[in-house]
Amino acid sequence: MWTLLVLMIISILVFGTSLFENKNDKLFNAIRMISYFLFYSIVSLEIIKQVWLAKIVNKNVIFGLVSGYVSLGLLGFFVCLSIEMVFPNSFQGIIDGTSLTEGLMYYAYITLLTIGYGDILPVTAPAQKAAILIGLVGQMYLVVITAIVVGKYINQSSQK
């Protein structure tokens, strides 16, 4: 609770002062990215914790399972966007006419799902390491968290 409150205050201060300052300032962009990342990290961890600790599998747990996966994709997106901000041109193949954020959002989810079409490539070492991390997190979530929910559902069904 306190962490979210502090994060909200920092975000309000950064966004409020960025209205009066130069919007392209790297410091404000970095703080904005960090606050987004922290917010989605906290939300993702809370969703995963609630799904993990659920005793009964119902529609809310299933929605939580899906929401946790979507949140992990957003975390992957913010990681990729942060890498692109620090190391420009870390990702090659984003189609002309597509914004950088749309391309990186697509890339993060395609990597999280381990589809890997190969149309967008990580060309710097941090981008390549992020791709590995995003893919591993996606697989671990599907294998571990989903298996736990399915196991709870099977136990719940067999006890009726």
From TrEMBL:
Potassium channel domain: residues covered: 101-150
Domain of life of the source: Bacteria
Keywords for the protein's UniProt record, in alphabetical order: Membrane, Transmembrane, Transmembrane helix
UniProt keyword annotation of Membrane present: yes
Gene3D superfamilies given in the database record: 1.10.287.70
InterPro entries reported for this sequence: K_chnl_dom (IPR013099)
Residues spanning the membrane: 30-48, 60-84, 104-123, 130-154
Keyword field contains Protease: no
Name listed for the protein in its UniProt record: Potassium channel domain-containing protein
Annotated organism of origin: Flaviramulus aquimarinus
